[in-house]
């Protein structure tokens, strides 16, 4: 609720002063929101890369203690080994858990606020955008929910993951599930999520390229010394 009112005022200002269309106003506002969130998303992506690099060692530790019961005191030894693994990579267990939730914590409040705006704002009732005659109602051609699901799939394929292959395959089903769930959602909400996903894909590509370049620069002196 506390976000819905500023979002509505921002949409009205962008509509009146920038684009004169509420659909494009949603796109512009989404880009602005993602620019503000960019440093947090950058940190989350870099953290994901680190987690993916240490995941083989993590799975090796977990495999050693796989048959140890949950309440067995030896479980504390596993946690100690995991803590030492994080420390060797310059990471902290508590921080990593919080950062892992960061993308959801950044996205969901704005998603809920946009839903509130689209359902209560009189200005958006009957506001059209390209093929959508009313942004406060579902997309009649279901193009935006399909594109939203496709963009989520691309994001997941690009995202480095510490999950095992079976879990990663299960996560690939989520875009399809959410796409079906959002078939009846307001077109403006799907437009917001699609625009947000596209911003995230662009930033993810840039951040991953920066990380690869940094890794190559760090590896170069090591090759020179071995040479």
Structure description:
The chain has 227 residues and is an all-alpha fold. The protein is built from nine helices and no strands. It has helices spanning 4-19, 22-64, 75-88, 93-100, 102-120, 143-158, 165-171, 174-181, 187-226. It is elongated and about 60 Å long. The protein starts with a helix and ends with a helix. The mean pLDDT is 79.
Summarize the structure.
The chain is an all-alpha fold and 227 residues long. It has helices at residues 4-19, 22-64, 75-88, 93-100, 102-120, 143-158, 165-171, 174-181, 187-226.
Index terms:
227 residues, mainly alpha, 9 helices
Arithmetic mean pLDDT? 79
Total number of helical segments? 9
Give unreliable regions as ranges. none
The amount of beta strand, in percent, is: under 5%
Report the helical percentage. over 70%
Computed Rg: 22 Å
The main sheet comes to: none
Multimeric organization: single chain
Number of E strands: 0
**What coarse outline follows from CA principal-axis ratios?**
elongated
Order of helices and strands, N to C?
HHHHHHHHH
Content-based structural category = mainly alpha
Ends: how far apart? 61 Å
